[in-house]
Design goal:
alpha+beta; Helicase, Ruva Protein, domain 3; two-stranded antiparallel ribbon; 6 strands; globular
Length: 324
Amino acid sequence: MILRLIISLTLSLLWSKVQAADLPGIPQFIDEMVAQYQFKKNDLVQVFKQVEYRADVIAAITTPATIKPWLEYRGSFLNPPRIDGGVAFWNQYAPVLKRAEEQYGVPQEIIVAVIGVETLYGRRAGRYRTLDALTTLAFDYPHRADFFRKELAEYLLLAREQSFSQFDIKSSYAGALGIPQFMPSSYRKYAVDFNGNGKIDILNEPEDAIGSVANYLKAYGWKTGEPIAQLAVINNGYSIPSFKDSRSLAAWLEVGVAPLSKSQTATPPAWLIDFTVDSGKEYWLTYNNFRVITQYNNSNFYAMTVLQLAEILRTAHISTAANP
């Protein structure tokens, strides 16, 4: 990793002397975009001449936040700015959130929590030029080059469809866009015009972001009314199970795993996961809806943080509604 950073920093210093269109892989990519999507070759050549290599993008993607211990990671999001900001966001867009829940079946607190974790309710939507970030990753991050080449193509298509300049849009270091941080392919596939103004804009319109998050989770299999996760205990006398597949609650009970609280409805199959806390290990039975949240970000840390922030926000929102 240190060697890659040194190489990346060296390339960044030389970048002003090198035309992007001449770098390995980009000319072929341009030809593919021309053949498959009828872009004009000279237009794309000129675009890539203006792309800036970002060594800091490579550094960021090789040291993700989930490398932090669980309690440190959780503490980065379960804090007053996200809680207070979430309650304010919920109050401001209460009718929109209610409509999204009714239409897609995703609880309002989950929608708010996702947006809160992703961008602090739109306040931290990214500081990298999207084209720079995606180009850097597509052609200098072999580990996921195919994925980022696809997202680079999707971004160029999105810019054409939305009629914005490829250089005007900022994103995360990974190219995630707007208030809900959708990758370009997700923007094109799952973003919706939820305020009915005739355009889909998750970059600037919270209403569209709210509907789009709900639509995304629904499309990935969110099941209305089903549980997300339950804190569990391992009964004395049993060894800790190491099953990686899902099992029925009855099957978990047979091997000594029991939820601390009873569900009000029949529980679907569950996966057992654990987190390291101050007192040792904390065990959770997680269900389909938990795994749907990981489709947004493939991390148990992420999904549990969304869930716990959502529960805090729901309680706080009810309290403020009762005591305006």
